[in-house]
Amino acid sequence: NHNLNPIAFEVSGTVTSETGEVLVGVTVSEKGTPNGVSTDVNGKFKLNVRDGNATLLVRYIGFQTKEVAVNNSAVINIKLANDERKLNEVVVVAYGSQKRGDITGAVTSIKADDVKDAPVTQFTQMIQGKTPGVQVNQTTGIPGQGMSIRIRGAVTFSGSGSSQPLYVVDGVPLVSDINNINPDEIETFTILKDASSTALYGSRAANGVIIITTKHAKAGQNSLTFNAFYGVQTVPQKGRPDVMNAVEFAQYEQDVFKEQDRINRANGGTGVAIPVEYQNPSQYAGKGTDWYNVLLRNAPIQSYNLALNSGTEKSTTTATIGVLNQDGVLVASNYKRYSARVNSEYKFNSKITVGLNVAPTYEKLANTNTDGNIFGGGIIQNAITSSPISPVRNPDGSLTLTSQSPGLFGNPNWYRVATENKNNTQKGRLLSNGYANIQIIKDLNFRTSLNIDYVNEQNQTWSPSTSGGLFAPPPNQASASAYSNIYYSWLAENTLNYKHSFGDHNFDVLVGYTAQKYHQDFNSQSGFGFPNDNIPSLAAATQFNTPTTSIQEWSLASFVSRLNYNYKNRYLVSASFRRDGSSRFAPNTKYGNFPAVSVGWNVSQEQFMQNIPAISDLKLRAGYGVNGNFNIQNYGFIPNTQTTNYSFNGVLTPGTSIANIGNNNLSWEKSKQLDIGADFSLFKGRISVSYDYFHKTTSSLLYQINVPRESGFSSIADNVAKLQFKGHEFSITSQNLVGPALRWSTNFNISFVRSKILDLGPYGTSLPRDPNGANIEMIGQPLGMFYGYKFIGVYKNQADFDASAKYTGSDSPSQVGTVKYADTNGDGIIDARDKTIIGNPNPDFTYGMTNNLTYKNFDFGVTVSGAYGGDLQNRTLEYTQNLDGVFNVTKDVANRWKSEADPGDGVHPRIVVGTALARNTNSRWVSDGSFLTVKNVTLGYSIPMKNNNYIKSIRVYTSGQQLIVFTKYKGANPEVSGVEGSSVVNIGIDNTSYPVPRTISFGVNVNLK
Amino acid sequence: CKKSFIELVPKTTVTEATFFRTADDYTQAVVGSYVPLRSITNDAYVMGEMRSDNATYFASPGLQGGQFSDKWNISGFLDIAINMNGTNKYASCYVGIARTNAILDRIDASTIDAAVKANLKGQAQFLRAYYYFELVQYFGGVPLHLKEVSSVAETALPRSSADDVYKQIIADATSAASLLPAKQTTLGMVTQGSAKTLLGYVYMTLKRYPEAETALTDVTKLGYSLVPNYANIFASRNTAESIFEVQYLEGPQGQQGNFAFQFAPNISNVKNILGPSGDNKTTGGWNKPTPNLIAAYETGDTRKNASIGFSYIDGDGNTVTDTYCKKYTHGPYANFNNTGDDWIIYRYADVLLLLAECLNEQGKAGQAIPYLNQVRSRAGLAATIAANQADLRVAIAKERRVELAFENHRWLDLVRTGQAISVMTAFGATIKTQQPYLPANAYTNITQNRLIFPLPQSELDINKQLTQNPGY
Q: Could A711 and B13 be called an inter-chain contact, meaning their C-beta atoms sit closer than 8 Å?
């Protein structure tokens, strides 16, 4: 007891990192005593110790603990080494934080600093390829949109977006999307993958949870940083549609008309003349329109961020403002984001801390209907199937009104559609939370918080008389629409946390109560009858369609609890329990219980492991938990009424009918998951490896199941299907070189997920029942299998035709030269019963690798990500290889069947007016979608600033995003997968999407003193 | 938090629990029960006329897919159990049945005014009878749902026999006839005449002629009359001749029809036929009159030019000589694919001819002839020369064909009178030479099995208690 020792010895000094950075708040204590202090804002400490022979124990999060003998020195400057083993790194988890070494679930965390240089607009683009078990796909290149994230194969059947993980920002489970969060505001991402780590989010956790923690200044930190980049986006040549040029197209159409002429004459009719436009194809040499190219441009992207960090012992403030402006590579598309965030915390005294985070953002997106099928109005697909002999501009330079050619459907000039149609969305958002932490007694803390997520979204569309669509060439009636979508959720949380250690027993207990409510007001209106195109707004409409108004609400009241216990940090146990009551669930199923338990064993702390010095850490862990997915419609179980008006004698008369069958048992999707994992590191942390096996069973999947139409209804929301997922995840991080000048680290991760459908409920063995559907869910099969005809060539000649099964339907019976499908049921004819599984969109494995090198002041990083073995269905081919002569087609169609003597490549069938069968889903559209994408390459240089009075550091860098895509897939984007965030029922489908650009950028990070 | 925090109800819609209280609620529910009529009628011509010798379709180069092939297949007797026209009729009828069941389950116990109650109940019973009559004629015996479905378990029933379905139709229609007024204050709502005509049709289909005679004769006492100018029946709404008419309203309220566009040629611009510019390739080209139908009109028949167009002006201003159905074309219209022309299901001339047929089948040719002649006279034709039962049978059938052409009676008339197989087989051989774009295998499979249509395959997949009609 040093109070009894009169000869106190005073030691003082400064604690810094190995790179010389002052460390604030480092605990410096006298070993073997409770005597200790923290370093001040300048990293300085002063401590009275027993005598000059004492030993100092220096501990700091993220650094290796160091023991320093005083040796009678009055001044000791201490350097702390980074803790490569990361065991003491603090990781944010559900409702709290834990030391990495104590975590028993499957949790990955990423520091935003490690991914900061990517010239992208969304943080989800930055984490592509970084984490095993997390499949991040960029499904479309529309500015500010298009990211799909699936954790451990998470799926639902119930619709768009509902297989996305739950995002929690500073403790607030979001109800809006995460695209409008400025990546520069983010400190860390934590990805909770298994049920034991997510179960505290209960009925919303089944798709995994991504916890985002924003930047908070530390005591003693005072800095002003400025980050900016400017980039140019271009569309690579690879993956562009390979459609015919004007000469090839004119020749093709000439053949189409010759074929029609032949058929008409054979039927005893009069001949068909070849239109003058197609009589002399060579006249178009060097001319014509490349419609895809017409829509493209090189486009700038720029981003500016200013961040202030200021911290004292009493209070800390972080303020960030950001501006982002991305022009799209498709004409007239643009995305802008203005964001600000202020995070402040104030310590009243040692017991009470209060904080307030306020983050307003404003986003503006301009993009018309670019993606998707021609009949849905998708501009890209429509443009590439338009006539290349049709000019974009008249000789006087003005835009043409239509793009029409003989035999083709009426089309507008798609450049006009892309540039003159408006679809502008602006979104204002306020994400805000306030909290107070109160220490009631030692080790017992109470936290209360109130959080709000508010979004005000406004959209306006406009289509002038000069615009139009397929079959609707201008002039058309101008039309306009507008909607307003205002929604918010508030969340109140109260938690008690008791952390206590006695002896070797360490307890951490949490109990809490939370309530959240969501409210949405949606109003929309559309109109027409514009006198002219002068006012591109609904304001000038003279006639209006019936407006839509809807109010949607849900609420969730929950109890949460958790116990973490460890003995000597060696044996770890965690148990948690959440009970959710939800307005979305039916009276019989109002409450759900979500328990989880996990255990861990830090084997490397055992005595017997001390003899194996190569292994520096080894932890085994296992967890089991239950969680749910509550993404179904509000009020889904309540039988509702709907407006069903009728008119009598020309007068509109109000009518009402029952809209749906009630379901008093409607409930959340249940997911049970087992996770077994191991983390170990070798050679003092030079190599660290993590492995997880998981087995997940998702049952009670929500689906609008078809019911017999005889009931008067077509479907009912019900919990029906059961799926199983198994997977392996593996990651390795290696510090290859750790020299003072040259440092090189590598991270590689790979995951294998297998899915299997176990049950589809009372109504059968496959879903959906759409006879033209491209995917099928079948018991015993993986999810989303491709379903259609098996293409086996063309009927090469009469003998082949006679010997093969044929389609005999009235729309276009088979003939010599048409497509030949496999007669899979062997009944001698080809019909819908021959459809079979023709592909598997689920990759065998997905992987990613990141390499970072630093040499003196240079830094260099490369991130790649890829998937192997999944099939893609290129449905664009339905139109670009259609042989009706009504679309422009791919160049290889020139090698089609022309006659028995000239049967072509055996793949492309003959010209037939009405090749209905060829347009059905078939295996010719299915190909391997494996890819490896160089997502990001960054080269940076830090300019030495030793003697500058104002600038602490400057780093300049150049970065390339989406640099190269290695794939055999011929479409534009192997990451395409139906529509953004779509449900599993249409995965792996390429319906033509906005190209993902390659971006080359230059950036600067300035750190001011 | 209180428990009520997680008990939320919709704020912008009314739930079933709070509906069905007032007379206004019941009125709105009945109005909602008419709505499926629009959907059923929109493509009823496919199974009602294009299946028959009255109509086929225009050549459609470059078009394919279910929306086209399903209609082609029905026309050429090539349809299979996956067909959206069949599914639409089946599903829409049952939507109507479910809505009327919800009313009929509750209305007796409700406390609304007795006269209002009788009228509403009569309308609901008529509509349920009509929907089941459509089903039983086109599909045979079907599941007989007579109670509101309120859980998944109640959604599926096995098929009832056609007899049982007819029994229910007769019960409903008889009750409706006793409850409904001869004239509704709101024109377009069904009346006693609608119910009695329906009953007449049902009994004729069942060959219960005396009962049919009673029902149809009753209709002649309800004040209906023939509109002097045939064309005006279709150019106006709810005329003195109209007995049961599906109501449409032009404009953006979602009440529109589009018959004029569906029946116009499928050309790239129909502005010179219908008014608005628009590519009609995917909308139009249906219900094209056959040469066989055109030949059936006698010389001087004013109905011929009122029903059939013999030329049109295309988008470039050229006159094209070709035939199309123009009975429902009353342009110019303001908007593409949006018309307000009603569709008459039952009208007085139809009742007169049906009564004539009914009398003739009972050997009362003498009583039948005046009814037939009333209709002929309006068409500018002389009295029939048929005198015996056999000749008169042919004469009435021919008269029904031209009088009611494109009104979705022809196919059912052929089936009811036992003519379908012989007439369609002969017709099929000829029409393929006249319209070479029809598939070679069209009209080659006209059998007894094809007199009714297949149940939708999707229904058999879900409801395992169902059995398919033979031959499909």
A: no
